[in-house]
Design goal:
The structure holds two protein chains of two kinds.
Chain A: H1 6-13, H2 21-50, H3 53-59, H4 64-85, H5 93-100, H6 106-138, H7 144-170, H8 173-196, H9 214-238, H10 244-262, H11 266-271, H12 291-304, H13 307-326, H14 332-350, H15 355-362, H16 374-381, H17 383-404, H18 410-430, E1 444-445, E2 448-449, H19 451-476, H20 481-507
Antiparallel strand pairs in A: 1-2
Chain B: E1 16-27, E2 30-41, E3 45-49, H1 56-63, E4 71-76, H2 86-91, E5 92-95, H3 107-117, H4 122-135, H5 151-164, E6 169-173, H6 181-196, E7 200-204, H7 208-214, E8 217-220
Parallel strand pairs in B: 3-7, 3-8, 5-6, 6-7
Antiparallel strand pairs in B: 1-2, 1-4
Helix pairs in contact in B: 3-4, 3-5, 4-5
The chains are: A mainly alpha, B alpha/beta.
């Protein structure tokens, strides 16, 4: 049989809803014009807004390059892990069965979806690089040539990230874990000098301006693009080695997630990616003692049954706590960026530890099986993750406080308070249910139907509320530990009340 | 037969543990259940039969407090079915639809956890769980996670979960689902043992064998249209 995709593409192109060549060209035109007319001016405006003394001092300091390397490696490690659950080379289940599982060379079949998926890491690498370049240009610290080289370096970084993502899909679990460990270790080593220099914020590494020369930027850009291209080429050549069972499992999972997401069930979509337990079967999950201990032990043992997820979650919470702890020590926009990234990482990591809370909500509407009602179950299931998140939050904050060398309580208080808020927000999110139809009621305006904004707000509240909570806590931090504690207590109390309301609505 | 820890005795002195009169459910223009009446005393088995759509599951959901009737009167252990009423919750165990399992607990741990939440100590709950699995001949599944079970095995585990908690009333929706004839005999034996121990059982079934061997009384529902 001829190994050609030609006939398949021909059949596919003959569908009634198939895109014509003209459609494709129009789509490309719209994207290109959108980037030129909207994207680029927006980035240049953001660059002008960021071209202020404190931001420039950070960008041009000796601490910036190792920090960028550490962040890039941390993202790469995360992408290797992501490849295990949703790799870049993926087709819908039907095509996985018929094309990737058929007589055609698998590598050739997967090449196009792989190339499409690479656009994501490419954009993720290029956009921040363009933003930095725009900031430096707005402050007359660099010319268009160097700015272009910086953007090119971002593209190279994106290619490397694409390679890391693909490697995660290609590798078996043990080598994948090793690679994550190695890249993560690299990130830690790269992060150590700038972190240790935080205490010298006013005079050391972070205040020493060492703007790289054009030659250095060019070397980095060429090196990154060459390495990225080589990585992507290698992964492309290895696509044929992807296992059919793994592809089918990923395709099914992805389709289930996109179906849930399309139906505005983002929690269901996220649930499709939760690892199923496969280890620790012999651990005793049920023990004696008071009921709160019964639930806490059951939850803690359950975490150990998905060790990768548990370790990833704990690491994300810890790194989030470090970023949150660093926020009060950083100036201006850098503080808010650290706060945003830290709160996001803490919230994401916390997701690995709240399955018990989710299960408590799921018992609603079913005949009572457990001795406690759903609301009580949620409180009991909050004990173990609460202890863990607060402990990790305190640990991350203490690390920052120690290397920061200050006696201020802010770096410890902030991550601990955010951890408590995030846990309450997670319980609130678990009790969300489906979107009320009333929110889909059209809101006609001269600018179009604004109901889409209401629906987006409803979908995003689980992410936005913890971020707003973290921002509120950072704002009250200068007022002292008492104010932070009071604000955290108020936020947690409010979220508990909102959760209770949602539980009642689900039960009705 | 493994016996869960005793539950609070029903406060009612009525011999009927379950009583319902003229129960009907109407949703907008749609009739889900025409008027149904019945009584079940301790140790009795009431079989609810009827074609698909006749309202069997709806009636069981009403008895379990999961659905409010639009007509009629229902009492379980002398109480109006209400999930917020602890006495009612202690009195009634039900299997209606798939059981709500936790993805990260093994089968035996599920049973043990259920027992522990009702006040058993961990070792007693574990022993009771093992006995239940033994009774339904699924002890080899003890260390499996829910996603590692076949559909028939899941049905048996769901049934074991309903039996693992203390109850004066058992409400079961088609317990014979997805079971082979041998397993069905095991389920019949297990339910008969509960009835002899004094549990009032209301079950909906399409299995003539199960109904014939267990039922003390029958309630045949008709299609509401």
């Amino acid at each position: 049989m001829s190994a050609s995709l030609g006939p398949v593409r021909e059949v596919w192109a003959q569908r009634s809803r198939a895109r014509t060549r003209g459609d494709l060209l129009y789509l490309l035109y719209v994207v290109a014009m959108g980037a030129v007319v909207l994207g680029l001016p927006a980035l240049l405006s953001a660059g002008r807004a960021l071209a202020r003394g404190d931001v420039l001092a950070l960008l041009l300091s000796a601490g910036a390059p190792p920090t960028a390397i550490a962040l890039s490696l941390a993202v790469a490690a995360g992408l290797v892990g992501l490849g295990a659950v949703r790799g870049p080379a993926l087709l819908p289940p039907f095509f996985t069965a018929t094309l990737a599982g058929g007589p055609l060379p698998r590598g050739r079949v997967l090449r196009r979806p792989f190339a499409r998926a690479l656009l994501l890491p490419l954009l993720a690498g290029a956009l921040p690089a363009v933003l930095v370049a725009a900031t430096l240009m707005a402050a007359d610290r660099t010319g268009p040539g160097t700015a272009a080289l910086l953007a090119l370096a971002g593209v190279g970084l994106g290619l490397l990230w694409g390679g890391a993502w693909s490697a995660g899909q290609l590798l078996r679990p043990t080598p994948r874990r090793l690679l994550i460990l190695l890249v993560g270790l690299g990130a830690a080593i790269a992060a150590a000098p700038p972190l240790m220099a935080v205490r010298e914020l006013a005079r050391g590494m972070w205040s020493q301006s060492v703007a790289p020369s054009d030659g250095q930027v060019a070397a980095w850009a060429v090196g990154l693009v060459a390495a990225g291209a080589a990585g992507v080429a290698l992964c492309t050549a290895l696509l044929g080695r992807l296992r059919g069972t793994e592809l089918a499992a990923q395709a099914t999972r992805w389709e289930a997630a996109t179906t849930s997401a399309t139906a505005t069930d983002l929690a269901g979509a996220a649930g499709a990616f939760r690892a199923l337990p496969a280890a620790g079967r012999r651990l005793r999950a049920i023990g004696g003692g008071p009921t709160v201990l019964l639930y806490a032990r059951r939850d803690a043992v359950a975490w150990l049954r998905t060790p990768d997820r548990c370790a990833g979650g704990a690491l994300a919470v810890l790194l989030g706590a470090v970023a949150l702890g660093g926020a009060p020590l950083l100036p201006g926009p850098a503080a808010w960026t650290a706060l945003l990234l830290g709160a996001l990482a803490l919230r994401t990591g916390a997701g690995a530890f709240v399955d018990g809370i989710r299960h408590g909500v799921h018992t609603l509407g079913a005949p009572p099986l457990l001795g406690q009602r759903a609301g009580t179950q949620l409180l009991l299931h909050a004990a173990a993750p609460g202890l863990l998140l607060v402990t990790l939050g305190a640990l991350g904050g203490t690390l920052v406080a120690v290397v920061g060398g200050g006696a201020a309580s802010g770096p410890v208080m902030l991550p601990v308070a955010v951890a408590a808020t995030v846990l309450a927000a997670r319980a609130w999110e678990a009790a969300k249910g489906t979107m009320p139809l009333a929110l889909a009621t059209p809101i006609p305006t001269p600018q179009g139907d604004l109901s889409v904004l209401v629906m987006l707000a409803w979908q995003a509240d689980a992410v936005v509320v913890p971020l707003l909570g973290a921002a509120a806590l950072l704002l009250v931090l200068p007022s002292g530990p008492g104010a932070v504690l009071l604000t955290a207590a108020a936020l947690v109390g409010l979220l508990v009340l909102l959760t209770r309301r949602r539980l009642r609505e689900l039960q009705a | 037969m493994p016996v869960p820890p005793s539950t609070t005795p029903p406060p009612s002195t009525s011999p009927e543990v379950v009583a319902f009169e003229g129960v009907g459910v109407l949703r907008e223009e749609s009739v889900l259940l025409l008027e149904a009446s019945g009584r079940v005393a301790a140790g009795e088995v009431l079989a609810v039969t009827g074609p698909n759509g006749s309202g069997k599951t709806t009636l069981l959901r009403v008895l379990a407090g999961l659905l409010a009737p639009t007509a009629g009167r229902v009492r379980v252990a002398g109480r109006r079915p209400d999930d917020r009423d602890r006495v009612f919750r202690e009195a009634l165990a039900a299997l209606i639809g798939p059981a709500q399992t936790a993805r990260d607990l093994t089968v035996l741990e599920h049973l043990q956890f259920v027992g522990a939440t009702w006040g058993s100590d961990a070792s007693a709950a574990r022993a009771l769980g093992r006995d239940l699995l033994e009774e339904l001949r699924i002890l080899p599944l003890a260390d499996r996670f829910p996603h590692e079970l076949s559909s028939g095995q899941s049905q048996l585990v769901s049934l074991a979960l309903a039996l693992a908690r203390p109850s004066a009333v058992l409400v079961l929706d088609e317990p014979e689902q997805r079971l082979d004839p041998d397993r069905l005999d095991l389920v019949i034996d297990a339910l008969r043992a509960r009835a002899r121990a004094g549990t009032a059982i209301v079950l909906a079934s399409h299995s003539p064998r199960l109904v014939e061997q267990l039922a003390d009384g029958r309630l045949a529902l008709e299609e509401p249209w």
